[in-house]
Design brief:
By secondary structure, the protein is of the alpha/beta class. Helix content is 25%, strand content 15%. The protein contains five helices and seven strands. The strands form two sheets. A five-stranded mixed β-sheet has the order 3-4-5-6-7. The protein has a two-stranded parallel ribbon with strand order 1-2. It is globular, with a radius of gyration of 17 Å. The termini are far apart. 30% of the residues are buried. The C terminus is likely disordered.
Length: 162
Amino acid sequence: MDKTFGDMERWFVTGNHDHGSFVGDYLVGKGWTELDGEVVEGPGGGTLLGFPDPRSSGLGSWRDEKGVSFAEAAQTVADVACDSQEAGERVNTLLVHDANLGKVALELRCADLVVGGHTTSRPARPPSRARTASSATPSPTAPRVGRRTRSRSAASRAATPP
């Protein structure tokens, strides 16, 4: 990958099998940028947000973050993406190890695309004015839809415009 992409900017997040700092240190040493929950300028002038996997298998049952469920971590990712959108900087690409970590952010329409080591996902119905995969221009800031929770009452969903 270094030979092929060495002259390009490269970003990464660590995954659930990355025990300790070896993988991160190695990639940083090769010129990659480690993403750790802050929005940065990404490819083509878009915005990029990345989160490491909250699980780490290593050896045994060791974990980076004890007591944090995967669902809680996914909500944290969505909160950061939605906060960024509210501040006027929409997240165009969300980089995570497991695409399910970005599912809540997509459901709340606070990110345009989630790219994961295992899966790539797009919302079933992208927000209006969202950039397309062929566009190099970031989308304008779109209003956040609803509250930051996956389960809303039928009455609140009916009251929220699409």
